[in-house]
Amino acid sequence: MGLSLNIDMSSTAFVEPLPVIDFAAQILGKDVMSRPLSDANRVRIKKALHDLKVEITHRGSLRRKYRVFGLTAQPTHELIFPIDDEVKSVVEYFKEMYGFTIKQPHLPCLLVGNQKKPNYLPMEVCKIVEGQRYKKRLNEKQITSLLKVTCQRPGDKEMDIRRTVHKNGYDQDPYAKEFGINISDKLTSIEARVLPAPWLKYHDTGKESECLPRVGQWDMKNKKVVNGCTVNHWASINFSRSVQESTASGFCQELAQTCKLLGMEFNSEPAIPMYSARPEQAVQALKHVYNAALKKPKGKELELLLVILPDNNGALYGDIKRICETELGIMSQCCLAKHVFKICKRYLANVSLKINVKMGGRNTVLLDAVSRRIPLVSDVPTIIFGADVTHPETREDTSPSIAAVVASQDWPEVTKYAGLVCAQAYRQELIQDLYKTWHDPQRGTVTGGMIRELLISFRKATGQKPLRIIFYRDGVSAGQFHQVLLYELDAIRKACASLEPNYQPPVTFVIVQKRHHTKLFANNHNDKSSTDKSGNILPGTVVDSKICHPTQFDFYLCSHAGIQGTSKPAHYHVLWDENNFMADEMQTLTNNLCYTYVRCTRSVSVVPPVYYAHLAAFRARFYMDQDSLSVKNANGRNGGAMKTMPAVKERVKRVMFYC
């Protein structure tokens, strides 16, 4: 097609330009004027203000701006500093210099300017500068608010793009004319195909053992999971004060019953009665419940812990996952209190699906996989990898990047994925631990790494070594394609060779991109046969010409049905292909895999192994406790050593713990 002009609207969250005292009150959810801040609240405000620009308000029209790097440990009325061979308090200085009386001397000062010789600014004389992007992770409420503002139906989105082209008047642009560039005011018309949805297989004891999804969706009505797990020893903890013990116990019984209805073996009786605790007692409570179950007559280790949370408390959730998965070696399933009060069958079914895979079961498999009809997967033992690297928020250079790799552990079904995670240098995109060697005083040179471990795990699970490798890689920009391919393909080769001389299964290496601005619209928004309920293009829509590379192997695939807003297709780049996939075969395999995502009965927007790798990397952030996050990593701006991530217990990493 040649050069194209890509127009899209980008959106982001901004910090509200409030007076700093109001901002602090908003962060804490309470008034800060009446009493001094506790240490914990001071740290919360310090973290929220870090790196923000503020302007002073006590000098009339002079609005100097400063960047905040900290908060004083002492309140303003205790702060003194040397000036003109004498020592003066901050309160006195502001009164004498500016005639300003500090009304909230119990609050700390902002630390601004030079870190070696900081300036003190009382909170009440500062206001947050307008137009600053919010660079930290948004919570659920903030995400919902942002989506409400930015979501546009496909027809509206297309109309906005057309208006922008008209408004910008490219046909009158003098620079375009000078270079002889002609810009059409029409959207590019392209050809697309819609791949059919695959048939799914459920257990034969259900009323429906086979299912054909309709427009990317289906449900669990009249179906049973294809391989149900067994849960004999479980317990529950209630961290919500608003949920009575009887209500919580009733909810857990309903959940256990739903698991049984869906085909799992689930003991109706918990190992010990429901235990209630406050969120700040989470670590002690988890260990107490685990040990209490062991001490029972004929006591055995817990397999599953059901946890009721008071709200979307990230810190509490993180503690639960870290303790259960790196210390106790048990699975946990968290449920919010709001779902306990109003029991919904669909919610219980979705939670049951998550429990099944966490405990080693399988929800559904592709019918073609069972009958061995998937090209270049069903003919020989094939392992499918997914890999991703997640980085800390901008400027948080004290945190390591987290790499995650998952790999299928069943063949020919390719539905169960074991996952491994590791911490690596700050903002390092190449996955460092795919393959590694080190010297051991007793054993000499030792080989290891995530690829090697997952290949061994596959052989243990299936009894066969993989004879084909398909590697889906997320989170790589176009400028890094070559570098990532060279480094990571080499690591895969070395991992294989370390297991057996001359063991070199053919590799297909695919990059998956979602961070692009290409939108696909139906030719006619009113044609119900070519759109889903949300007005988006149909799931399975694939484009591999005109807007794709003229010589390379790439395609756009919209594998999911839209829910709100305008669907964005995933862009797949096959950088290396020793398995000689035809374009149709790779597109069909990728689309079909999108129907095997275990957490819901919908096809998803990116191929599941990549989705799972992202979930595993996100989960591993919780393993790095606050102390480890405050350690300056080896490649950070402040130097120092990177603290090791706690290891996930063996029986945890064998299953889909990250779901």
TrEMBL record:
<dbReference type="InterPro" id="IPR003165">
    <property type="entry name" value="Piwi"/>
</dbReference>
<dbReference type="GO" id="GO:0003723">
    <property type="term" value="F:RNA binding"/>
</dbReference>
<feature type="domain" description="Piwi">
    <location>
        <begin position="304"/>
        <end position="625"/>
    </location>
</feature>
<dbReference type="Pfam" id="PF02171">
    <property type="entry name" value="Piwi"/>
</dbReference>
<dbReference type="InterPro" id="IPR036085">
    <property type="entry name" value="PAZ_dom_sf"/>
</dbReference>
<dbReference type="InterPro" id="IPR032472">
    <property type="entry name" value="ArgoL2"/>
</dbReference>
<dbReference type="Pfam" id="PF16487">
    <property type="entry name" value="ArgoMid"/>
</dbReference>
<dbReference type="InterPro" id="IPR012337">
    <property type="entry name" value="RNaseH-like_sf"/>
</dbReference>
<keyword id="KW-0943">RNA-mediated gene silencing</keyword>
<dbReference type="InterPro" id="IPR045246">
    <property type="entry name" value="Piwi_ago-like"/>
</dbReference>
<dbReference type="GO" id="GO:0031047">
    <property type="term" value="P:regulatory ncRNA-mediated gene silencing"/>
</dbReference>
<dbReference type="InterPro" id="IPR032473">
    <property type="entry name" value="Argonaute_Mid_dom"/>
</dbReference>
<protein>
    <submittedName>
        <fullName>Uncharacterized protein</fullName>
    </submittedName>
</protein>
<dbReference type="Pfam" id="PF16488">
    <property type="entry name" value="ArgoL2"/>
</dbReference>
<comment type="similarity">
    <text>Belongs to the argonaute family. Ago subfamily.</text>
</comment>
<dbReference type="InterPro" id="IPR003100">
    <property type="entry name" value="PAZ_dom"/>
</dbReference>
<feature type="domain" description="PAZ">
    <location>
        <begin position="19"/>
        <end position="130"/>
    </location>
</feature>
<dbReference type="Pfam" id="PF02170">
    <property type="entry name" value="PAZ"/>
</dbReference>
<dbReference type="InterPro" id="IPR036397">
    <property type="entry name" value="RNaseH_sf"/>
</dbReference>
